[in-house]
Amino acid sequence: MPLLTFPWTAKTLGGIQLWTDEWLHRGWRIQRHAWTGRYRLLDEANCRRAAGTEAECQAAVAKLQEQGCLPEISSRIVILLHGIARSRRCMSRLASYLRDHSDYTIFNMGYASTRFPLKHHAAALARVVNNIGPEVEEIHFVTHSMGGLVVRHFLADTAANQTSDPRIRRLVMIGPPNHGSRMAHLLDYCPAFGWIWGSSGRQMARWQEIQSDLATPPLEFGIVAGGAGKPRGRNPLLPGDDDLTVSIEETRLAGAHDFIVLPFIHSLFSSPQICHAVLHFLDHGHFVSESARQPIPTQPADDSD
Predict the structure, then answer these.
(1) Given its phi and psi angles, is residue 131 left (phi above 0), alpha (psi -120 to 50 degrees) or beta?
(2) Residue 281 CA neighbour count, 13 Å, CB half
(3) Per-domain residue ranges for the chain?
(4) pLDDT in tens, 243-284
(5) How many helices (H) and strands (E) does the chain have?
(6) What is the pLDDT of residues 5-21, one digit of tens each?
(7) What distance in Å separates the CA atoms of residue 15 and residue 20, rounded to the nearest whole number?
(8) How many angstroms separate the CA atoms of 5 and 179, rounded?
(9) What's the distance, CA 226 to chain centroid?
(10) For the structural domain made of 73-284, what CATH number should be given?
(11) Which residues contact 56 (CB under 8 A, 6 or more apart)?
(12) CB under 8 Å to 142, separation ≥6 — which residues?
């Protein structure tokens, strides 16, 4: 099918739950439709500039680059990944903070989180990373909720395929269900759960199906957990403290370079305090200071002495 170009403003919704980004350049992105497999090119205002095959959309990008229509990017990139049943819009405040307070170029990736299993999302992330040009020297990730599992799957895949990118440096996971989700497990008994949350939701509910496919990140990674600051937390269905959806214990992952608990609800994670902590880790490898760092050891501490 021939390439479709749109000289007028063809406004879209940005691809909520039906489109997955496979190429990013600041706010510009090439997306693939979850059902049809067709591609389209969107600009920073979510306006469709081209549609057709992937090669045709890449050709449209090349033409825009020749005309000097695409913005420049820095040598340091941060890729943001949202969680399940959300969109890239939920990362917009964090994206704005990082843009305003650093020289990182922000790639806010959207993906059809309820349409496919985690391995599909990880493969899409791999295509995004592989499409980043050699002018970029550093790649970092900041994730929310299930987005952290997508990155862990991606890192496991690249290690297995021996295609790890040496430019990947640091990862910050906000509210990640690193040991599965008790809430997803409880809701899995509801007949509508699979229809609403899709195969990725079922994988978080049935942790044994996915656990072995996730890597402990072989890089500096930090975890931001949400808590109420009280033993029983916010959600009576979760043991210990929690962010209403994920318990603090579910977020913990051995090998973390730093770990911090901040007062936030799972779906509201863009406070100035959180944004500052995220940027501080990206820059320095800790959330507050080196002396205040709280790593999670890979082996339990030996208290026998």
Answers:
(1) alpha
(2) 32
(3) 1-72, 73-284
(4) 999 999 999 999 999 999 999 999 999 999 999 999 999 999
(5) 8, 11
(6) 555 558 998 988 899 99
(7) 7
(8) 45
(9) 17
(10) 3.40.50.1820
(11) 2, 3, 39, 50
(12) 78, 79, 80, 81, 91, 94, 98, 171, 172, 174, 278, 282
The candidate with the shortest Cα–Cα distance to 106, out of 83, 84, 132, is 132
Q: How far apart are CA 27 and CA 201, in angstroms?
A: 28
Q: What does the alpha-carbon distance between residue 225 and residue 288 come to, in Å, rounded to a whole number? A: 14
Q: Helix 92-101 to helix 272-284 angle, to the nearest 10 degrees?
A: 50
The β-bridge partners of 48 are 10, 42
CB 110 within 8 A of CB 150: no
Which amino acid, 168? I
Bridge partners of residue 225, in order along the sequence: 261
Residue the block writes with tokens 């994920």: 246
pLDDT at 233: 94
**Which secondary-structure segment (H or E) carries 48?**
strand 47-52
